[in-house]
Amino acid sequence: MAGRNLVIAVDGPAASGKGTLARRLAAHYGLPYLDTGLLYRMVARAMLDAGQKLEDAQAAEATAAGFDETGFDEAGLRGREIGEAASVVAAIPGVRRALIDRQRHFAAAPGGAVLDGRDIGTVICPQATVKLFVTATPEVRAARRHKELAGRGDTASFEGILADIRRRDARDSGRGDAPLKAAEDAILLDTSALGVDEAFAAALSIVEKRRAA
Ligand code: CDP
């Protein structure tokens, strides 16, 4: 594997720690990083701003095919209700189809790239050098999201966030098109009992083993 493009696919459920891990892996290897969840969040944001219904598949598909990624401010994308709205539009097959090229184009950067999401290892980059599937228990993920949102002034309760996470897990895993699931050749990394540095060390060792293979 050494000398070839290094494409790292990082998938997993909401607040599993995949974004932090993917960002750190990208910095470590000097690779570009794409948070693909942001694309679904942008589609949802653009639809809500235009007064469209999230379930309107035709409008959602047209939005996904035509939006400009530079037109959003990140604070307006990271909120709790946009995560929920993103998971509604992400279940529409035409939306997923419309976003494939942007993601594959990014993954084809010279040298490689790191992408995180739900279907990177299964659909977007089935040939990735290494695939990580990052998990943690719903309670641990809710506690992490609670802390993250509190840091941004959101007063949502732990119980409310846990209910959000369970609902989103069910929707993301249950949809017919590109459901959240580990690729057959993905390596599972359960971060429930790991701090950020420990999780990064574990991920790095998985990637290095794969590169040396
Ligand atoms: O950070 P968090 O995991 O809460 O959310 P995210 O990664 O920004 O994703 C928001 C929603 O977009 C998810 O619940 C998925 O429904 C959807 N998504 C997807 O379907 N496929 C991806 N590659 C990334 C996100």
What does this structure look like?
This protein is of the alpha/beta class and 213 residues long. It has helices at 18-29, 37-49, 57-66, 75-78, 80-89, 93-107, 120-124, 138-151, 158-174, 196-212; strands at 6-11, 33-35, 112-117, 130-135, 187-190. It contains 10 helices and 5 strands; from the N terminus they run E-H-E-H-H-H-H-H-E-H-E-H-H-E-H. Helix 2 packs across helix 3. The longest helix has 17 residues, at 158-174. The termini are close together. The model has no long low-confidence stretch (mean pLDDT 95). Residues 14-15, 19, 36-37, 40-41, 83, 86-87, 90, 117-119, 168, 172 line the site of cytidine-5'-diphosphate.
How many helical stretches? 10
Strand content is 5-15%
- Gyration radius over CA: 17 Å
Outline the low-pLDDT stretches.
none
Question: End-to-end span in angstroms?
Answer: 6 Å
- The shape, in one word, is globular
- What is the strand arrangement across the widest sheet? 2-3-1-4-5
Q: Can you give the helix content as a percent range?
A: 40-55%
Biggest pleated-sheet summary: 5 strands, parallel
Structural class call reads: alpha/beta
Strand tally, please?
Answer: 5
Bound molecules: cytidine-5'-diphosphate
Mean pLDDT: 95
Sketch the topology as an H/E string, one letter per element.
EHEHHHHHEHEHHEH
